[in-house]
Amino acid sequence: MHKLLEDAPGKKALYLGNEAIARGALEAGVACATTYPGTPSSEISLALFEVSKETDLYFEYSTNEKVALEVAAAAANAGIRSLCIMKHVGVNVAADVLMTLAYVGVKAGLVIMTADDPFMFSSQNEQDNRYYGKMAGLVILEPSTPQEAKEMVGMGIELSEKLGEPVILRTTTRVNHSTAAVTLGGIPTRATEGSFTKNPFQYVTIPAVSRKLHTRLLARLTEAEKLSDESPSNFIVGSGPWGIVVNGVSFNYVRDALSELGIGDRVSVFRMGFSNPAPKKRIAEFLAGREKILVCEEGEPFMEEMVKAVAQENGVVIPIKGKAAGLFSREGEFDPALVRGVAARFFGVKDLPAARIDLSDLPEIPARPPNLCAGCPHRATFYEVKAAAGGRTLINPTDIGCYTLGVLPPLSSADFLICMGSSLGTAAGFSRFTKDKTVAFIGDSTFFHSGLPGLVNAVFNNHNFTLVILDNGTTAMTGHQPHPGVDMAEMGFSGYNRISIEEAVRGLGVKTVVVTDPYKVKKSVESIREALDAPGVSVVISRQICPLYARAVKRPRRKPFAVTDKCRNHRDCVDKLGCPAMSVVNGRVSINREQCTGCAVCAQVCPENAILPVKD
Amino acid sequence: MKPVRLIIVAVGGQGNLLAARVLGEAALSENVPVRMSEIHGMAQRGGVVESAMIFGDAESPIISDGSADVLLGFEPAETLRALNRANPETVVVTNTATLPPFTAAIGRGVYPEMEKILSLLRAKTGRVIAFDALALAREAKNPLALNMVLLGALVRTGRIPVTPEAVRRAIASETKKAFVDSNIAAFELGFEKAA
Ligand code: SF4
Predict the structure, then answer these.
(1) Confidence check: pLDDT of B43 > 60
(2) Which of A2, A247, A313, B4 sits in a 20 to 30 Å window from B61, CA-based?
(3) Atom of ligand 1 nearest to the CA of A470
């Protein structure tokens, strides 16, 4: 039985924030969960995917976030409690659905889980998704701990059903990826049989309908504001004359700071967990009798603007500060000492002395950036594309996945990246207006996610570039989730179809399509050269399974390689490939036997044929 | 209970997340409040993985620079890199078996001398326990049990508010059946080493 299915109400268990959210969905009777994987939200989906194997929970890895939200929106309107999971930037993809789904509303509860990533541990930006709640007119819940994250799924489902609107559950990395003891609740049976009552004049958003729906949404928002004022998620701790307004994980930092500074009796803390619409009455009450207010929130001044607006409406003139020089920044994430320091400065009390070590005499420690794994086929493909170009300058728009790491030397195969799927559109733009050859890279999962429209566009508008699809048979970056091109039987699932990238590409009218095995270097270089020389849009499908995934699905392993004494120390292998299984020991190249996956790419790059399979 | 803050640094694949999990379960089983967090976005791709564990009465799941009471390093250069997390009182437990980053292999940077690493750690922190944990893991006939060796040494410092018995029990319940014996053996070797 899966850990998350444990039937032990009242038991305390150590849960990762993301596991707690998945458990919360089960405790809330969620019967439909949809997602496109993305860190820091991925483990929620992974857990529910596994649970769906053992239960009647419907779970799907949708092709992208927009589709995921559409599936969940329909399920909720058929009376099925639903959860839709994505990372913060995923909401950008789903935003078109979100804005109008707020007009249409839901019948059964729908929680949209968005995981923000302050400091961008694994993201391309650190946008603050609370503004989506404001823009769409939807409730936002923000937990401070894994326990609360679990409970807020159920609370969100309830609020969603009460208001007839989806509810946004917004976390940050430090809630998703922190672990703490969580008290389990019971798991009810799920309602899995839906029905839909037709009512086109509520559900079909033609202008005449939408005008009415907008009016209804605003009325619901007014109702939601009352709920926000009454919500137990908006609470006050302490009764001192100084005030702190805080949300999310920062609440913990504030609590630690107040006890370390010894000013708990002088400060009252307003913890906002139901942050949209603003609990205006509660804020006004909080402001009354306070001397000054510090607003502590990562990201944008969302609550700060709200508190200032409430102060203005109530004629309260006290200092209210948050994002300002010397106080909090809009960049990155907070930590306990940072919050303590800002609080000490703002309230004019002494901070604890810093017990820092002098680090000025530390030697330079070589960096350890993440690197493509040993034997990663992407490394071979990057090498082959360079070789096929034969010294020609290439512009390489790239995309989001492990292969983004191709940006690092010695591969240096990434020149431009904005978002999921952007390799195709930007390749069109670069190739139209520059003389250099454009070769774009996209992974298989990302190709299905949002590469397809870009390819249709390129064929239709007769652009001139080569697209390399790195087909490693999985969504590797986020932990080997499936995508529409994956063999689901190999993962132990049945009832799925499989889409051929090659047929899809040909079907869209691409004339030059070559399929290569990146582990066969010479042949791949020849085929890629043919694609580079073809006019118009050409596509290379570079197909080889991700070795980590291969191991996970128990494919047979290959023999490792070793450097023999034929080596004349050109170091082409190390310098051109940068495989982490290779290192230079006492001036000689050596291969770590445990790490080597036997891909044999280095053996083919070696001009002396000095790299050979290990003899037993 | 006064909070005790532990930072664990490792290279992706060295098993520090499991070590943290074991320690967390041990704490829970003895009703010691525990919070932990980890950054593991690109762990599989050979980057640095860092876990923070806070035992006792504190709410924050992360640890600020200079605030770690204990620093456990799975790789010596990474221990040194994490020195900004420590303070002059910090107890440091570190493996001395190296895993040079590929940047050093392709000539971008030089891996520091072991003597230099250890003397810097000793000069700047409260106490340093350094030994070849990989050798001990091999002695326990399980090179992957490096994490359990280090866990043994860590617990022996007496700075973590969990008993060795609780950790042994957690190893038995949290690690794969086939490896429990060698994991326990590895734990004991580390525990002895830090005596
Ligand atoms: S996980 Fe797979 S695709 Fe990603 S870097 Fe490693 S081998 Fe390459």
Answers:
(1) no
(2) A2
(3) 3
